[in-house]
Structure formats: structure tokens, C-alpha cells
Amino acid sequence: MRFSGLGGRLYRGETSLEIIAGRKKWYLLSTVFILLSMFALGVRGVELSIEFKGGSSFTVTAPNGTIEQASSAVERAGYTNELRIQTIGDNKIRIQTGVIEQSLSNAIQDSLAAEFGITVESIDTQNVGPSWGEEISRKALQGLIAFLVIIMIYLALTFEPKMALAAIVALIHDVFITVGIYALVGFEVSPSTVIGFLTILGYSLYDTVVVFDKVRENTRAITATGRYTYAQATNLAVNQTIVRSLNTSLIALLPVAAILFVGAGLLGAGTLKDLSLALFIGLIAGTYSSIFIASPVLVQLREREPAIKALNQRVLARGGGSATPSQRIQNRRDKRKKRS
Amino acid sequence: MSYGTPQRTSGDAKKARPGRTLFITLLLTAILGGVAISLGATSINLGLDLRGGTSVTLQPRIQDGDTGQVTPEAINQAVSIIRQRVDSLGVAESEVTAEGTGTNRQIVIAVPGETGRRIVDLVGQTAELRFRQVLVEAGSVPTPNDAELVSGLNISAEDQARFTSLDCTAFDSNASIDQPESVLVTCDRNGVARYVLAPAVVIGRDVSGATAAIDPQSLSGWFVSLDFTSDGTKKFGQLTQDVVNLPAPQNQVAIVLDGVVVSAPRINEAILGGQAQITGSFSQLEAQDLANVLKYGSLPLAFDRGEVQQVSPTLGGDQLRAGLLAGGLGLLLVILYSILYYRALSVVVVGSLALAAAHVLLSLALLTESVGYTLTLAGIAGTIVAIGVTADSFIVYFERIKDEIREGKPLRVAVETGWQRARRTVVVADLVSGISAVVLYIVSVGSVKGFAFTLGLTTIIDLIVIFFFTKPLVSLLARSSYFQNGSKYSGVSSRSVGIVKEAVTAEVKS
After folding, report:
1. Which of B73, B125, B349, B392 is least surrounded by Cβ atoms within 10 Å, i.e. has the fewest?
2. Which of B57, B381, B503 sits opposite A272 (nearest CB)?
3. Which of B5-19, B102-116, B178-192 has the highest mean pLDDT?
């Protein structure tokens, strides 16, 4: 396979993608995305589901039913406020109202049942009180903070503190991008979305962990050998793991795509679609950031250290700095050829 | 071509028996399966979103005009009373549980089947404990004397009619509407007596505590001791003073919970000290039960309906099918991808995923049996997402093996050294995944909790499978000449690894 052949060349540094050297490009790209996200968030905000806003939702299965029928049935029940009616698939109609009393909810159920000639029990109903959203929003926020703190401590202990910091930067990047896409496209945010969203954080870190593990291995004895600058060694690590990163992300995306496809296709809205959509978007952002954001940020952080600065100067003084790892290997080969 | 004779390093001496490890793993799995079957853990509880039903999440709060805190004890009592109310409907498998921690708690009621509305109305009510003077007491079924009993009383014609037609052997306690300021016509909770009760003077909030006790000296048996608040003391004192000298049954005070008479003790003397004792021929259980009722009735709790969900069986079935379909499709895609990319090595992927799936199903069945675990749609999604996490571990390992081969190591050695390096990555990555599952589990509410749970569970299973199945299996395969020779479809051929033959021999990496 050509792809795996590429993996071999990347591993040995014969082919090298200049991830670290091109960091300004990635930063610019991400900044544009994040600004766009913040703009969308500021102008449109995200569309919150009734779990957050409070309100009721009624889903009736009526193959020949129309939106007008549903609308008049709700009106007859005595509800005249904010109303959103949409068709789901080819035989379902969903009606969403603002916050209503249980008795009015019952009246709407009765009215819908009469209108469409169905039983009350066959209507899927969800009533959410006005204070429920606050509760789950608060919990989600708590979760986010707790998660970031625990992960940061954990990564700082297992890896280097600066790796933890770089990983968190990449993570926050993913959060912005994903939220931005939700605001831009206008996807609805439900508790399932939030859960999917929090899961992405774990995923994004997983990817970064794989890359950083190799970075650490490559840079462990870096000051002693003095052959590569920190940036070069990191770039090689990213190149060596890029096939693996793409592979793991792709294989993680496959089941998520299956859920998204089935959830959105067969069920319309709901737990499956909300969860997998957030995962789908976040996974892609996470893969991108673990390669193009986390490692460059790590390099920048480390390059401020005196030891790394001294190393870089030493390597540059020997004229090694201008050479990319692939060129260096070529040089070594040439030397070897000369010798033999 | 061959990579040469494998060198034995000291490191793999203890890992020299992959076949045995594999055998033990499979044996233990089989034993676990046997245990599950012998315990009768052969099915998984499906959540209401997968089979239809009603779930109500209540948010307890302090009643208006009251102070104090929502204590865990109060919640537990509320749960037990709500459970009694739900059980009175006679629906099998209904569940009432408390969720959350500290002051932030919810009560979740889940009832399968099509009882929607009644449940919703039933569980949201605040428990109403009231003390009412008994006006009339009679047997469980209407008799010709009934009209005479109520004729002299100052009550409405409606209430009279209600009493004369009341049959306590067929009494729906949920239909009893208890307004404190009006007369109440009701039954006792065993359905053996009918009552007409005066408007309530003392209410639950006036009670400060109740305990069941036994007097060891007098041998008078179990009794319930009742304490009133200062306000309650005045009101109860007045009430008892008013009724103590009246003829029976009007010298009785009924204790009414949720519109049903729990007990109607006779007042022997005016109780002015704020402490009352309810005596009778109580068993220990009866006394404790009554004390609980009094305590619960005095809870200053009200409930807000946080979320009410009614899922029809049709939608439940659809969601279950969709979940299973998504799972099957996800599994298929992952297997296809690994066959394309790893060729014969995908045998390991398929085998490991199959074992992981078996472990997940077994664990869920055992959890269903032991702690009443319920699988929700979000839970199914968690297991599907976990297929990816599990497959990720294999990729990390396989790519490491390839890296080692690129370094010029023969396959048998690459499998071991690659494992030593991949192991760390896999463990760290799984820990990150595990931590996120735990955090998610703690912060999520309701059905999405199931997602975090299965994600966490499968992460643990992933670790077990890769350590005790995947790794030994790869070691075993690495011994076969098919893989050692780097055959075309082995997944470790020089072509798929991407090594240039000269490079292997010429380049020695430092």
C-alpha cells in the first residue's frame, strides 16, 4: 500500500512534512476559525434544546398529517404562544412549545390525539420545567472545569508540565471550533450534545497523548546528543506518528459516523444524532489540533528554556539548523557512501 | 526473505508463553459466562427510551414559607413515600431512585408501559400530612344507617352523598382530594373504615419530629412519640382541648397522609406540652411505619417536575433497532477498515473486538442481575463509540510493531519491543478516556449517565483485552512462518511496513 509506504518514509524522515516550521500558517488558520466561531457565537449564539430552555415537545406518528393540522390542534387546546412545528422523516410531526403546565400538556395531548385519530399513549412527550436547564448547564460547566483540572494534573505528572499545557491549549482550541460550528450552522444543542462534547475532550487528548509520547521519546536525550534542535526532533516525532494519528482518528470516526448516519437517518433528532454529531465534529478538530496545534505550541514553550536555547544554538552553529531531518539523513547516507 | 533468527532478550523470558495466557483468558471468560448463566444473568434490562414508558425527574426544594435544607434523610423518606404511591398503581418493574449528591439531588421515577399521565400527576404532589377531628367513623361499606350518621352534622349535602356512597373496599386513594380548609370524606389506608373528618387545624409542618419507641417498664408495647413545633404545640393543644370531652368518635383525631387516614387515635387528655404519644396495640413495624409517615409529612419538601418524558413503545422499539443497527454498522466498518489496512493481522482485531463484545455483554448482564443496571440508548451509543477506542489501541500497537521493523528488528523481537513501548501509550490513553468517563458520569443527569457508564466500562475491558488477549495472540502469530516471512497479505510485509530492503541492512540507527 502506498500509504503505508509513506508511513515508512515519514518514520525514517526521508519524507518530512514541515509541521513545526509551518506553525504560523496553522496558527493563522486556527485563529481565523476561532474568530469566525466567536463572531458566530456572538451574533447568533447557539440554538438550545428544550432541555435547556424549558418547554414541551410532542411527537406524533401520522403518515398523512400536516403541520397545519398540528398547529390548529395545539391552538384548540388553548396554547397560543411560541410554537415550533417540524416534520421528521416521512411520518412524524414534532411540536415544540414553551414552558407549559402539566394540565395544558395533557390538553394538547388530547387535542393532538383527536386531530390525528391516534391514542394519547402513542404520543411521545417531553415536558421540561423552567429551572431544569440551569441545573444541567451548571453541571456541564462543573464537569468541564473538573475535567480540565484533573487531566492537566494527570498529564503534568505523566508527561512534562509544558506538554500538559500544550495539550490543554489544543483542547480549548477544539472546544472553540466545535462550539463555533454549532453556532454557524445552527445545530441544536441538547444535553446529549454536551455529553458528546465533553467526550471529545477525552478524545482530543488521546490523540495528543499518542503524539507527545513519541515527542518525549525523541527528545529524551536531545541535549546530550546535540544532533537536532528541539523543533526538528519534535517535527520528526509528529511525522513518525502522523500515520498512526490519522489511522486512530479514522477508525474512531467510523463507528461515530455509523451512529450519526443511523441516528439522523432513521430517528431524526434525538440522543443518537446529537451525541454523534458533536463527536464527529470534535474528532476532526481534535485530530487537526493534536498534529498542527499541540506540537508547535509545545515547541514554542520549550524553546524559551535556557537549556533548549543553548542546544538550538549549538546545533545551528554546526550548520545543522538549516537542514531538515530528511536532509540530514541524506547527508549521513552520502557520507556513508563516500566511506565505503 | 526472512528477517533472520529471532534473538531472545531477557525481557521476553516471562512472556514466553503467549499460548498459555490466551488459554487462561479464554477459560476465565468461559467461566465468567458460566457464572452469569448460573446466576440467571442472561438478559439486559432495557431503559424506558428503548421499550417505552414514562420517566419523571423531580427536583426537591424547600416548600414556600419554610426554611431549612434538603437533607439526604428527607430525600430518602421522600423516595420511599413516592415508591409507595407508584406501587399503588401495581405496575411491575417501576423504579424510584435518588440521584445526585449533597444538596443537589433529584428523584427519578421510571415506569414502563402506558400509564403516563397517572404517574405524572401522582408523583409530583407534595405529601400532605394533616390532623383532623373525626366527625363520623363507620365500617368499610355503605349501610342503611349512613344517612342517619351524617344528618346531624354541619356538612354539605355533597359531602353527605359522598359518604353514603363511599365503598372502601374499592377505594382509589389517588382520587381523594384533601383541601385543608374543607371537610374530608375518606377511608383509612387498609380500606376497613370510612370517615368524615373536620377541616384540618394542625398540618404536617407543625410536627418537628416523630419516633417509634417501646417502654421497657410498663410493657405497654410499641408507641409513637410525637413532637410539635411551638406553633404546632398551641394549635394541637387547642384541638385536643376541644375534642377531649366529646363523645366517640368525635374525640378522635385522624392523622391523614395524602388524603388517606393512617391512624385515628382517641384523645385521652388535652395535650398542651407539645409532646404526644400515640399508643395502641402496635407491632414494632407498625409503630415505625407510623413514625415515618409523621416524619415524612413534616418534611418541608415540595417537588418541581424537572423533566417528564413519555416514550411510546413504538418509538422505544425504533430506538432499540436504531441503536443495534448503528452498532452493527460501526463494527462492520471498523473490521472492513482493519482488513484493508492490516490484512491478515485483522484476525487479531476481529478476535479482540469479539472478545471485548462478549465481555461487555457479560458485564452488563451481570450488572443487570446484581445492581439492576438499565441500558439506555445513550448507553448503547457509549459502547459503539468504545469500538473506536478499542480499535485505537490495536493501531497504536501495530504501528509500533511496524516502527520496530523499520528499525531493522525481526518480527518476533519487534512484537515484544513494540509492545513495551505501545503499552505505555495505551495505558495513558485509556486512563485519559477513563477519567473523562468518570467525570462525565458524575456531572451528567438522567439517561446520558448511561453513556459515561458504558464508555468507562468498555475502557476497562479494552485494557483487559489488549493485555491478556491481543498481545499474546500477536506474539503467537509472530511465531508462524507466514508472518515471519512478511508474506504479502500478512500486514507486516516489507511493502506495507514500507521498508527499503537495503535500508534494513545498511542503516544502523543509533
Report:
1. B73
2. B381
3. B178-192
Cβ separation A195–B451 shorter than 8 A: yes
Which residue in chain A is spatially nearest to B52 when comparing CA positions? A124
Angle between helix B72-87 and B116-124 (nearest 10): 140
Give the model confidence (pLDDT) of B356-370 as tens digits.
999 999 999 998 888
ipTM > 0.90 (yes/no): no
Mutate to test the interface with B, among A95, A197, A220, A247 (most CBs of B within 10 A): A247
Distances (CA, A) of A113 to A93, A108, B330: 12, 8, 37
Q: Where are the domains of chain B?
A: 10-44+312-506, 49-125+305-310, 129-300
B10-44+312-506: what fold? Multidrug efflux transporter AcrB transmembrane fold (1.20.1640)
Is the confidence at residue A16, as pLDDT, over 50? yes
Architecture of the domain made up of B129-300: 2-Layer Sandwich (3.30)
* pLDDT reported for residue B504: 41
Give the closest-approach CA distance of A138 to chain B in angstroms.
9
Indicate yes or no: CB of B433 within 8 angstroms of CB of A202.
Answer: yes
Closest Cβ–Cβ partner in A147, A155, A254 for B388 = A254
On the question of pLDDT at A265 being above 90, the answer is no
Give me the pLDDT at residue B8, please.
Answer: 45
Q: Which residues from B are below 8 Å from A337, CB to CB?
A: none
In chain B, what residues touch A217 (CB-CB under 8 Å)? 421
Distance from the B417 Cα atom to the nearest Cα atom in chain A, whole angstroms: 14
The residues, ordered by sequence, that sit 6+ positions from B338 with a Cβ below 8 Å of its Cβ are: A251, B345, B346, B349, B350, B391, B394
Which pairs with CB-CB distance under 8 Å and at least 24 residues apart come from B167-174? B167/B140, B167/B141, B167/B142, B168/B140, B168/B141, B168/B192, B168/B193, B168/B194, B169/B140, B169/B141, B173/B88, B173/B258, B173/B259, B173/B260, B174/B85, B174/B88, B174/B118, B174/B121, B174/B122
pTM for the whole structure: 0.73
Among chain B residues, CA nearest to A133: B306
Provide the pLDDT for residue B19. 83
What is the layout of strands, in order, in the sheet containing B95-101?
A83-88, A92-97, A55-61, A124-128, B301-311, B53-62, B104-112, B95-101
Question: CB count, 10 Å around CB of A32?
Answer: 10
Whether A101 and A138 share a structural domain: no
Cα–Cα distances (Å) from B399 to A17, A149, B415, B422, in that order, read 19, 31, 10, 9
Is some CB atom of chain B closer than 8 A to the CB atom of A187? no
Measured between CA atoms, how close is A303 to chain B, in angstroms? 25
